[in-house]
Amino acid sequence: MLHIVNKSSFERNSLKSCLNTIDDTSIILLIEDGVISAANNVNSYMLADLAADSRVFALQEDIDARGISSKVADNIKLVDYAGFVDLVVEQGTAVSWV
Amino acid sequence: MKISIQINEGPYQHQASDSAYQFTKAAIAKGHEIFRVFFYHDGVDNASRFTVPPQDDRHIVNKWAELGIKNADGSDVELVVCVAAALRRGMLDESEASKNGIDGNNIHPAFRISGLGQLIEAGIQSDRLVVFGD
After folding, report:
1. Which domains does chain B have, with CATH numbers?
2. Can you give the pTM of this predicted structure?
3. Looking at B27, B34, B61, B82, which residue is catalytic?
């Protein structure tokens, strides 16, 4: 399952809710302001654990637009919109935490 | 693969419509079929043919409209606007305008007004439904 988070954790609790809810095989894609959580100085141990397991992705275009491309945390994989489409196709049901 | 899109926010205020557009374009480029794009809640404002952004800004409504004309295998992308959400926000097509005795209409011809059943059908008929909102 693909969980799409589009809000910064400074603004909403959607990432936290998502992290507390998802099962062991689901992956997370950060888009829009959600990519702020991909910065290495925004600490979330749960997200880091998932990233170490190759289960966290972030949208490159939104990372670039927010000027944080040089501080993306270790193990978070960057995808473009084509990669976003591939994740939707590969991961089955897509849930947007809007 | 058949993919449908739901958009819950209007243009320019939120990124939802822009993200959805980029996603839809990428999906079409990859050869997937976009079964339907459903505009719900404030998302109905993406269908206003009266939208006039500054010249150096993207024209979101026209971008969606152009997408409706050319799709993956030549078939049209269905741009569907929720009727209840549209009417309460003053978004009407010709038929709804005359039905409600209002002397104008503002839905872009590339879009069509329909009911919530179309969203449910999109969910059933498509392999994936991706929601963009705020």
Report:
1. 2-132 (3.40.1260.10)
2. 0.96
3. B82
Q: What is the pLDDT of residues B65-90, one digit of tens each?
A: 988 655 556 677 799 999 999 999 99
Establish if A94 touches chain B: CB-CB under 8 angstroms: yes
Which residues make beta-bridge pairs with A77? Answer: A57
* Overall domain count for chain A: 1
Per residue in A10-65, pLDDT (tens digit) is 999 999 999 999 999 999 999 999 999 999 998 789 999 999 999 999 999 999 99
Give the mutation candidate from B1, B19, B42 for the A interface (greatest A CB count, under 10 A). Answer: B19
Three-state DSSP class for residue B24: helix
| Number of Cβ atoms within 10 Å of the Cβ of A78 | 18
Q: Which residue of A has its CA nearest to B1?
A: A89
Set of chain A residues whose Cβ sits within 8 Å of the Cβ of B3: 85, 88
Q: What is the ipTM of this complex?
A: 0.97
Expressed in angstroms, the distance from the first to the final Cα of chain A is: 16
